[in-house]
């Protein structure tokens, strides 16, 4: 039996020496030292031995067990170190390799203008209102005093979705939503996308942006409209900028005016930018029509309001001297990166 144990030890030590992985080593441990392992099964036969032989064999068995255990442990350390080395070698970082270039995006010029205008009006105490791009015909036209036969409803420049909905042709319907839903006094601007059935050319795009403004309360006057817009254009185009109110017609304002500013390129002397006129048209405005107030449940005998609306693309094209509106929507980074 002693010989059996010593043969076993020799075989086991050889196998342990040749083990290639920690898993393999573990299965050797089970094979030799486990509960159902080979040493255990030899020891089970100890009952057959004589009383003199038993302690001798017991001692040998313990020595074999200890020898195997320590051999397994040191092999385990060896394999662990080897695996770590392998991992380090495979994860080597080449610090001389060029890094990845991350191109950081930037705000589109349209967004830049909207942000700039919004910030100016927030400084004047306005808050921002939003409305949906798919709007009711009621909010886009009827409530804004443009009844069924009104030219601004012309099929040719409006995208109708069905008999009640359309893609809004202007941000003015946000006026209606705000007046119907918010408490007075109201002082909001509303930037957003608008749509008209226009063929794209250098100055037209079927999708464009507007910024609407609305102030409603007691004793709101045209003088306040002029003061507000003067303040706005001076902040946007420079302190020396002057405004000119030209009479106009919009269905939802009375009186209505188009507003020109002194050309920010030549200061009003006349240059190619302003087509030698010294003035540049930038927005439409007026006093909210009593019919519109009434349509929104506001008594025009007690309250009054002013409104204005401007085209964002137009402002961007003026400010950045862009001569074709389509460039703004082609999203060519070579173009956009200039702003
Ligand atoms: N909605 C007008 C348009 O698209 C612009 C406009 C003019 C808005 C006068 C207004 C306003 O609020 O008072 O042409």
TrEMBL record:
One of its GO terms (biological process) is phenylalanyl-tRNA aminoacylation. One of its GO terms (cellular component) is cytoplasm. PROSITE patterns: AA_TRNA_LIGASE_II. It comes from Romboutsia weinsteinii. Its main location: cytoplasm. Binds 2 magnesium ions per tetramer. NCBIfam families: pheS. It is an enzyme of class 6 (ligase). The keyword Amino-acid biosynthesis does not apply. It catalyses: tRNA(Phe) + L-phenylalanine + ATP = L-phenylalanyl-tRNA(Phe) + AMP + diphosphate + H(+). Residues 111-330 form the Aminoacyl-transfer RNA synthetases class-II family profile domain. GO terms for molecular function: ATP binding; catalytic activity, acting on a protein; magnesium ion binding; phenylalanine-tRNA ligase activity; transferase activity; tRNA binding. It is found in: Cytoplasm. This is Phenylalanine--tRNA ligase alpha subunit. Residues 65-92 form a coiled coil.
């Amino acid at each position: 039996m002693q010989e059996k144990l010593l043969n076993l030890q020799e075989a086991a030590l050889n196998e342990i020496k040749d083990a290639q992985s920690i898993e393999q080593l573990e299965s050797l441990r089970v094979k030799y030292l486990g509960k159902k392992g080979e040493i255990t099964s030899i020891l089970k036969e100890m009952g057959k031995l004589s009383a003199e032989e038993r302690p001798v064999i017991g001692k040998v068995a313990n020595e074999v067990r200890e020898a195997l255990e320590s051999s397994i442990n040191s092999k385990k350390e060896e394999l662990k170190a080897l695996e770590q080395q392998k991992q380090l070698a495979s994860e080597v970082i080449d610090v001389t390799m060029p890094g990845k270039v991350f191109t950081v995006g930037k705000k589109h010029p349209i967004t830049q203008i909207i942000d700039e205008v919004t910030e100016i009006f927030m400084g004047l105490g306005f808050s921002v209102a939003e409305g949906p791009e798919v709007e009711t015909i009621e909010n886009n036209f009827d409530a804004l005093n443009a009844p069924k036969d009104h030219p601004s409803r012309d099929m040719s420049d409006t995208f109708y979705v069905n008999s009640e909905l359309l893609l809004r042709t202007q941000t003015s319907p946000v006026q209606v939503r705000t007046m119907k839903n918010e408490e007075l006094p109201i002082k909001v601007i509303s930037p957003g996308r608008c749509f008209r059935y226009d063929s794209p050319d250098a100055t037209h795009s079927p999708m464009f942006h507007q910024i609407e403004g609305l102030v409603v309360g007691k004793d709101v006057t045209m003088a306040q409209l002029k003061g507000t817009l003067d303040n706005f254009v001076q902040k946007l185009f420079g302190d020396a900028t002057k405004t000119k109110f030209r009479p106009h017609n919009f269905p939802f304002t009375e009186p209505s005016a188009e507003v020109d500013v002194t050309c920010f390129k030549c200061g009003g002397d006349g240059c190619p930018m302003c087509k030698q006129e010294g003035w540049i048209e930038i927005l439409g405005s007026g006093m909210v029509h009593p019919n519109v107030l009434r349509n929104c449940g506001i008594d025009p005998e007690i309250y009054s309001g002013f409104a204005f609306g401007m085209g964002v693309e137009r402002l961007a094209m003026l400010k950045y001297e862009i001569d074709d509106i389509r460039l703004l929507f082609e999203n060519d980074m070579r173009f956009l990166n200039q702003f």
